[in-house]
Amino acid sequence: MQCPVQKGIATLAALTISIIIAGCASNGGLAPQDRATETGTLDAGAAIRAANAEAQWPAADWWHTYHDPQLDAWIAAAQANNPTLAIAQARVREAQAMTGIARAAQAPQINGSLSIEREHWPDNVYYGPGPLSDANTWNNTGTIGLSYHLDLWGKDRNNTERALDLAHASAADERAAQLELEANVVRAYVDMSMNYALLDIANATLQQQQQIVDLATRRLKGGLGTQLELSQAQTPIPEYERQIDALEEAIALDRNRLAALAGKGPGAGDAITRPALSLAAPAGLPSALPAELLGHRPDVVAARWTVAAQARGIDVAKANFYPDINLLASIGGYAAAGPLFQFLRSANGSWTGGPAMSLPIFDGGRLRAELGTSDAGYDAAVDQYNQTIVSALKDVADQVVRLRSLQTQQSDAERSVAAARKNYDLSREGYKRGLTDYLNVLIAQNQLLHAQEGVARIQAQRLGAHASLMTALGGGLADPADGPKPDETLPAHGRGKGQPGSNAPDVPKAPNAPLSTQTAAPATALQ
C-alpha cells in the first residue's frame, strides 16, 4: 500500500499532467495560405532572351564604366555624407542592437538587490509590546537572484533568429538605399551633361542666327533684301537667348542637386566642371537571369530575409501555446535588528530554488489571434517578395528594351542631323545668293536645331538607361549568397537549423507546411 505522502505526490503529478495537457491550447490548424513564386516559373521575355547573355554581373563600382573621375569623386562624397543613407545605416545599427536584446533572453539572468534602512518600531497594543517595541534598529536585506528560461519549444531561439533575420533585411535595405543614391547621382550628372550639350547647340544656333542677321543686313544695304527679311532674321534671337538662360539655370540646379545628394551645401556644387562621360560598349546581361537575380538585387534579398523573419514569428507564436518553465534561485541575508551588517552573517542567510511554470489554460482566443496575426504577416511578406521578384524582372526587361530602342533611335537621329544640316547649308547658301527667301532658311534652321537636340537627349537617355540597368541587376551586391536558406523561409519547428545569416548555398526545398482547415495553400520555400 502507498503511504499518504506517496498518494499525494501521485495525485499531484496526475493533476499537473492533466493541467499541462489542458493548458496546451490548440492552434486550430491555422497556417499560412500564400506561396512564394519560384523564379524558374517566370518567363524572362523575348527582350532578355535576345540580349547579350555573356556579360558579368555589375561590379560594385559600376559607375566607373562612364570613365569620369569627377563622377567617381561625387559618388564617393555622397556615400560618405548623404543624410538619407545615414538614416538607413542607423536603422541597421538599431536592428543589430535589437538582435542583442533578443539574444540576451537566451542567457541566464542574475540580479542583485540591497536595502539598508533605519527603522523605529512602534510600541502600542497593535504592534507591541515585544523585544523591538519602541526601538531603533537596522532593517537590512541583501539578495542575489538567478533565473533561466528553459527554451523547450524554441521560443527564445526563434525570437533571436527573427531579430537576426530582420537585421539582415535592414542591411539589405541599406544596400538598396546606397544603390538608389548612386543611381541618383549618376542621373543628376547625366542630366548636367545633357544640359551642357543642349547649351552648346543653343549657343551655336544663336551664332548662326546672328550670322544670318548680318547677311540680311548686308543684303538690305545692297538693295537685294527687304526690311521684312531683316526683321524675320532678328525675331528668333531673343528666344534663343532665353533658351541659353534656361539651360544655364538648369546646369546651376544640377550642381545644387549633386551637392545636396552629397550632403553638402549648394556652394560645394560651384566647383563641378563640365562632365566628360563616355560609355564604350552597350551593357550585356548575365547568362543566369532570372535564376540568380534574387541573389543580386538588395531589395529581393531584403524581401527574402523579411519572409524568414515572419516565419520565425510564426514559430514564436506557436511556442506560446506550450508551458513556460523558468528555473529560479536566490540567496540572501535578512536582519531586522543588530549592527549595520548583521544581515551578512550566516545565521541570517536564506536561499530558495526551484522551477516556476506558467501555462495557458483559457485566454479567450488570444493565442489563436496572435498566431493568425503572424500567419497573415507571413503571407504579406511572401506576397511582397513575389511582387519584388516580378518588379525586378520587369525592371531588367524594361531597360533592355529601352537600350535597344535608344541605340536605333540614336542612329536615326544622327542621320536626321546630317540631312538637316545639309538642308540648312543649301537654304542658307541659296538665301545668300538670292535664290530663295528667308522662310526656307528659318525652317531648315529649326529642323537642324530639333535634330541636334534629339541626338543630345537620346545620348543622355542611353547613359541613364545604362545606369538603370545596372541598378536593376543589383548594382554589384557584394555577396550574392548572403540570403536565407530556402528552408529558413518556412514556418516549421523541425526545419534544419543553420547558423543564421551564414553564406551557405541553397539546400533542397523543405517539405510543405501543413494545410490549414481553410484549405490553405502550402507554403513554398523561397528559392
Describe the overall structure:
This protein has eleven helices and six strands. With 527 residues, the chain is an alpha+beta fold. The protein has two domains: 28-106 and 167-322 and 361-489, Outer membrane efflux proteins (OEP), CATH 1.20.1600.10; 109-150 and 324-358, Outer membrane efflux proteins (OEP). Strands 1-4-5-6 form a four-stranded antiparallel beta sheet, with no helix packed on it. Strands 2-3 form a two-stranded antiparallel ribbon. The chain is elongated, with a radius of gyration of 38 Å. The two termini are 63 Å apart. 32% of the residues are buried. Mean pLDDT is 80; it is low at 493-523.
CATH superfamily annotation of the largest domain: Outer membrane efflux proteins (OEP)
Mean pLDDT: 80
State the secondary-structure class: alpha+beta
Spatial gap, N to C terminus? 63 Å
* Total count of strands: 6
DSSP summary: helix tally:
11
- Quote the CATH topology of the largest domain: Outer membrane efflux proteins (OEP)
Which descriptor suits the 3D outline? elongated
CATH class of the largest domain: Mainly Alpha
Order of helices and strands: HHHHEEEEHHHHHEEHH
Into how many domains do the coordinates divide?
A: 2
CATH structural architecture of the largest domain: Up-down Bundle
User: What is the CA-based Rg, rounded?
Assistant: 38 Å
Provide the helix percentage: 40-55%
User: What can be said about the biggest beta sheet?
Assistant: 4 strands, antiparallel
Uncertain runs: 493-523
Q: Which sequence of strands runs across the widest sheet? A: 1-4-5-6
Q: What is the percentage of strand-forming residues?
A: 5-15%
